[in-house]
Each structure stands twice: as structure tokens, then as C-alpha cells.
Specification:
Two copies of one chain form a homodimer. The first copy, chain A, is of the alpha/beta class. Chain A contains 15 helices and eight strands. In chain A, helix 7 runs antiparallel to helix 8 and helix 10 packs antiparallel against helix 12. Strand 1 of chain A pairs antiparallel with strand 1 of chain B, so a sheet runs across the interface.
Amino acid sequence: MNNFNFYSPTYFIFGKGRENEAGKYVKRFGGTKVLLHFGGSSAIKSGLLDRVKNSLNGEDISFVELGGVMPNPRSGLVYKGIDICKKESIDFVLAVGGGSVIDSAKAIAAGALYEGDFWDFYTGKKVEKALPVATILTIAAAGSEGSSSTVITHENGMLKRSAEGNALRPVFSILNPELTFTLPAYQTACGITDMMAHVLERYFTNTQEVEITDRLCEGILLTIIKEAPVAISEPTSYGAHANIMWAGMVAHNDICGVGREQDWATHQMEHELSALYDVAHGAGLAVMFPAWMKFVMNHDVMRFAQFAVRVWGCEMDFQHPETTAKEGIAKFEQFLISIGMPVRFAELGAKAEDIPTLVKNMRLGNHTVGSFVKLTEKDVTEIYKLAV
Amino acid sequence: MNNFNFYSPTYFIFGKGRENEAGKYVKRFGGTKVLLHFGGSSAIKSGLLDRVKNSLNGEDISFVELGGVMPNPRSGLVYKGIDICKKESIDFVLAVGGGSVIDSAKAIAAGALYEGDFWDFYTGKKVEKALPVATILTIAAAGSEGSSSTVITHENGMLKRSAEGNALRPVFSILNPELTFTLPAYQTACGITDMMAHVLERYFTNTQEVEITDRLCEGILLTIIKEAPVAISEPTSYGAHANIMWAGMVAHNDICGVGREQDWATHQMEHELSALYDVAHGAGLAVMFPAWMKFVMNHDVMRFAQFAVRVWGCEMDFQHPETTAKEGIAKFEQFLISIGMPVRFAELGAKAEDIPTLVKNMRLGNHTVGSFVKLTEKDVTEIYKLAV
């Protein structure tokens, strides 16, 4: 196990009707003038935004609204949000939505206290301070409600990049599973794939003696495998959605990833896909993860066998561990198909002839990506080809 | 899953040599004058205390030393610590030791900002404010390094009671597994039993649809079952001790217990044992937990069967689930014996004729204890008898 620091100071408020406590918690965490940030019309139509506004009004907290966050959130709205914060002396950013809204809110919160271009944070500068951010989560997926990171796509070049810093961890996050009942099944499945990917990026590691985080990773995956089909086929199953929602947070606040090298190559390969084609992040991950696994499996067959046995219930083939390892990858791919995810380029609308562009956009040059296996441009090209 | 709040804001600093960063973190978290609280001579002899003092000196942080915390920490030293804090204008309490030292530090930190008797907090008053507490952990066991609770024994009547409040969560905790290498095997085993008990108090619940926390509980237990024999037989195995140390934190910061009714009857029964006989808490738990399980098993045979299959690798007997359930309890008891724990009264020096005293000291009256099964005085008497 490697040395590590772990810090997850977010106050989580979980359960039915908890969004009505938003005002109370904004007040407790020092907000007096709030940027209320959200996405499209669903938060308005469902009445959620009204409930949140009522809660803020009930505590005499003033707010400025900024809606319109798109999936794969863009820089344009972030610049607009930063302007509003500076002009209106906003001291608190409240995100009502899924990972895209939260990531946009984090970008605004960091940019509001920074003199330069907020994009600096997405090209390597660490976020040291930001306005306090809080979230009311409506999609179980990205884990941004408990994480220290944010992903934004810059409209100049459609580059999708991430920024990081403990200042970006939400001060509080409200998670009401009922808010996820109305999501289309496809979007629920995309979210489920995203959270599985967050675990897998941590699970496949070269670090030895990490049984505790291995077991926590496996526990989260086993939960998702059990609850996902229920959440998708029974949209109002509170139990299934509650388990999925908390799994999504635990998958990404790093409690299951501390003390071990993490990989994240697949996320970077996917970012190029969703930047180029504007596909859902989860769908892109469903296409890329099995391909990545097939390419790297021989690097550590026993880890893939462990994945197969402990997570997918495969019988260990002690004579041919690689058979078990392959079976685990196949079961994962079958699971993704069973919840309605694409697993090949064509299903996503991606094209084999764009592979050179995808690889070029990663700007690897002579560098590599990933840590389980350090991938060169040539390796990445092969993996994209496996996904065709 | 029940509604819940979860808040674990402690900054964890984990790994080799990290105690040398104590001064840096005290400064970061605002400490200027520290009460340095510790136990017996081992922290002095090992040179740990000197390293911590050097680290504080390096940041020009002044401190007052208060050693002498005993296992099952007592009220007398707490009163003394509170006096020192008030007289010396202490603004930060740094605990160097195991759960006893940390619990004593938490009591002092709460009492230092309170006009009344600190014992009020241990008889029902919630802790709303306290001096910041930080820890340098030397025993993997109690989980107090990440928890919001503290247990103290009052010398007036030898009552062992707990207090709770988010203000008691350490601002930072330094966990260096190497510091646990020198513990006697018996004490390591007591710590292991304590952390298993923290999981089990959460695991046996009547709350439905809690797969995510079930799986996290099971993952922690599976880790402990694998790593404990190594940690005991190879005292300098870094990997085993690192896994055990982080498992001890995760077992008790409540990440594996949110959203579900928890039991805690066994802890209360054990508190009476260790208060009366001054035995190690972990040893007392090893005696009481199998007894409790045998008494309550029929309340939910399938939960005990799940415990047997998922945690102990038992084969499910689908015709007779109670056979599997019993096998799980037997395997747990065998495991405790294998790591050198007592499992009966006599091994602990406890006496059957004291059972009425133990029951009386719980002061249940017409109330019950526990939630999985609500135990009356009669039930508690039966469970103590099963442990004889």
C-alpha cells in the first residue's frame, strides 16, 4: 500500500424529501448570496427548482439563476457564470442537477476567485481556492457530488479536460433517490456505467497489498450488478435507486482508491470520444472499457481472474487462469449490453476512420497514458480499433 | 434504506513516517498551543513522542504534555486535562496513542469549552463544540481516529459510558502502520476483534434494501479475516498492518453503517464487563459477540446465512438455512480463538455469579438495549449466561 492523504469533508444529506432542507444547509455553510446553477427544463418541470427556491426564500437567502448547462458542459456558460459571480458578489454556488451541472458549478466557483482564465485549472494548474459549492443531485453517475474533480469541454477546439483540488469538494450534497426516478432508462444505464468505470479505474493497479481497497471496490461493483437491473426495469424502486445513488458517491470520493496507483487511461480515451461526437460519457465508457481490458489483460492475468471470480462469480480455472480472466471481461461486456449500453463504435456513431483524430487529440506525443499499463499512441490506436 | 446524514471531515495522513508531519498539520488546522496527550511509556521508549515534539518545535508550536492515559480511560485524567486547557489557554488537543488516548483527548476537548461537568456529555448531552482534536494512531482498533464518539469510565461507580458529536471528529489523523509493529500479539488481536465488532454492530440490522452497506461491511470483514493472521504472525508485515489499520478506520467512521438501524447491544454488554473487570475491550467483545449471535440468530436466519456464505465462505444449505447460519457463527468463534482471543467468561476472569451485577449496572430497568432484537434485562441475562 502506498502512502496517501484522504479528505472527504462533504456533508451528505441523503433520502426522501431532503432537497427541502437546501436553504438550511446553505445558511449553515455560510452562503448569503447564491448562484443557483442548473441544466435544462426537467428541474423546472418536475417542480424541483421551485422547491429549492422556496427553501432558499424560507431562509432569506438571495440568489441569481443560471440554467442551461448541457451534457458534456462547455466553457461558454462557465465564463458567463464567473462574470455573474464577480458582478453580483456571489458567495456560494448551488448546483441542482447531475455531474455536468456540478462540474460546471465547480469551474465557476474556482474561476470566481481567480484573476486569470479559469481554463488554466484544466491545463494543469491546481485549484487552491474556490467559492463553496453545494449540490442537489438528480443523476447517479459522475460522483462529482463527493469528488474533488471537474471535467469541462472548451469550445475552442472541443478539448475535454479535468481540473482537481480539495477546494472543489462540495461543502454539502443532497442526495434524494426519488429525484432519479424520472430519468430515461438509457441515462440511468449511462450513469451506472460511469460509476462502474470509476471503480475499475482504481481496481486495475500494480500496487500490491491493497486488500481493503480491493474489497471495497468489489463490494461497490457487486452492489451495482445486483441493483442496476432493478433500477432500470422498475424506475420507482426506491431501494434500488438508493443503493445505486450511494454507490455512485462511494465509487468516486476515493475511499475505494486510496493507497494505490490508479489508471484512468480509459477515461481519457473516452473523453476524446465524447468531445468529438458529443455522446454520453457513460456510453463512451461502455465502448472503451472492455476494449481496454482485452488489450491489457495479459499484463496481470491473476488480477483479471480475481475480478472474474469475486465480482462476476466465475469459477476459477486453476489450470488456465487466462480463461477465467477472459470470462470476467466477457461477463462485464454482457452486463453492459443487458442494461442497454453500446459496446462498439458503430452503436455510438463513432467511426474507425476518426481513430487517428481521436489519438491526435489526446496530444500524447512521446508520453504515455495510464499506469496499470503505460499506453503509447500506438497502444491507444490498437485499443480504439478493438472497440470498432 | 433509511434517510441519513454522513459527515466524515477528518483529513487522513496515512503511511510510513507521516508522524513527522504532525507540526505542519497542527499549524494548517489552526493550533498554536497544544495539549500533547498520551499513554504510558511505550510512546516515549519508541522515540515516537520525541519525533512528534520535534515536529511541533519545528513549526514553533508550544505544547503542554499530559501522559498517563490507561486502557479503559478514566475520568480523573480527563478532569486534569480540562483544568490544564483552561488554565493554559490550550487551543488544540493532539492525541498520540490508541483509542483510549484519543477518547480521553476528545473528552478533554469537549470539557475545555464547557462550563459544567464534562460527564454531562456521557449521560446524554450532545457535544456541540470542542477544541480541535487530532490524532497520531498507534493501535488499530477503536476507530476513534475517524469517529464522532468517545468512551470514558467514571471512577465514581466505574460506569463506562459514551458521548457523541461531530465536533469530536478529529480534524486530522496520522496513521503510520509501522507504529503498530511493536504491539504484543494479544493487543493486536484485541484491536482486530474491536474493529470486526464495529462492523457487526452495523451489519445485523432490520433495515431492508441496504446492499451497498452490506457489501462494504462484508468487504471490511473479508479483509480482516485475510490480513489478521499475517499481522499477528508477522509483526513487521507492512502490508498486513496497513490493511488492518485502514480497515479499522473504515469500520467505524460510519461509511459502512449509514442508512441502516444499528444494534450496539453487544458493545453495551461488553462495557459492563470491562468496567467491572478492567479487561481489554476487544477481549470482552470476543466473549460477548458469539453469545449474542447465538441468542438472536432465529430472529433473522437468512441474514446470518448471508453472513456465513459471504463472509465465511460457507456453502449454503438451501434445505436448512439455520445450519448455514450456525456454521457462520461457529466459524467466527473459531476465528477469534485462532487469533488468541478468549471466548468464554472464565478465560477473561469473569464470573457467572457477577451476572446480576453486570445486568444491574446496565441500568435498563423497563427499557431495552439493541435494535436488531430489543433485549430486556432477562434477555441480557441469558446472553451473559451463554458466554459463561
